[in-house]
C-alpha cells in the first residue's frame, strides 16, 4: 500500500490533542492485521485514546523503533483555504493538518512495515505510535511503562519528527510551570491600602527576564542550536475580575527550555529565590503575600553522541556522511533515552516551519525520500544489525 494512500486515511481522522484517536488506531490496527502484524494497545486512563506498539520480525533481539505521534494541533482560528482534514495534492505538495507534523512519517512507517512483513528480518522492526504528544509528550509515558518490562528491550529508536530528513541528535528539555501570585483585595478607590497581585506578577516577570539574561550571558551553550542557550518564556498572564477591584490573584504560565548542560531544577531554584525576594518585604503588612510555583508538565532533553549506534545506522542508510543537527522543538526521543536507555535520534520528512500553520503541507519529494530511507533500513534489518 502506498504511503500517500495511507496518509489520505490518516489525515481524515481529526485527532486533535485531548480528543479521541481511537478511530485512527483502529484503522492502523486493521491495516497491520491484514499483513499478519500483531499489535498491542496501551490506553489512556479514561479509555478514549491509545498508543499502539507492533513488532515485525524476531522477538528475541532488540531491533529498531520507528516512533511517531498520532495527535495534531487544532485548526480553529486559522485561515485555511482548504479542508484541513482532507488530503489534497497540488504543485508537488500534500496539504492537510498533520501532513508534516507528523502523519507523513507515520504513513511512511506503516507502508514500510507492510513491506517488511513479507521479508525475513533478522533484526526486528518496531512501530510505536502515541497520543497527546503535542501537549507535553503525555501519551507515550504509558507506552514506556509497558516497554520497561519488555525483554529484550528495543535497541535503537528513530523518532520521525520533521527535520527535512537531516539527522538530529538533540533537543532541549522542557519544564512547564504555573506561578500563582497572592495579594490583598480592596475597592480600587482604596488601592494604596491593598496589595495588587498584578503588580506582584509584573515583578515576577522581571525575575524571569533577569534569569533569562543570566542564562544567555553565563549559562551552558551549544552552538548546534539556533538559540544556543537555555530559555525562559512567559506565555500566559491573567488576574483580576473588574476594574474597580484591586486584584488579589494573578496567574502566570511559564516554561524553561534547557540545554543538556543546564539543570532545569537549578534554574527553577534561582527563580524561586527571586520570587521570595519579591514577597518577603511585603509580608509585614500583608502576611498572605505569596508566589507559589507548581510544575505542570516536563520532559527531558536529548543529547545523543554523534558516534552512537543510532546515528551510525542513520548515516549509513542515508547514503552519505551527513552532518548532524539539533532541533529547537521537543520530541519523545528524550523520554525513550531517559526512561529506557535506548539511543535515540530524530529524522523525518518535512520541515517544522510548515507545520502548525494554516494550509500545512509536506513536499511529495520528502515523502518519497523518507520511503527510500526506511526501505534501506529494512534492507539492513533483513541482513541483521
From TrEMBL:
Keywords: Amino-acid biosynthesis, Arginine biosynthesis, Cobalt, Cytoplasm, Hydrolase, Metal-binding, Zinc. The keyword Cytoplasm applies. One of its GO terms (biological process) is L-arginine biosynthetic process. CDD domains: M20_ArgE. SUPFAM superfamilies: Bacterial exopeptidase dimerisation domain (SSF55031), Zn-dependent exopeptidases (SSF53187). PROSITE patterns: ARGE_DAPE_CPG2_2. One of its GO terms (molecular function) is acetylornithine deacetylase activity. Residues 169-273 form the Peptidase M20 dimerisation domain. Its EC number is 3.5.1.16. It is an enzyme of class 3 (hydrolase). Its cofactor is Zn(2+). The keyword Chaperone does not apply. Belongs to the peptidase M20A family. ArgE subfamily. This is Acetylornithine deacetylase.
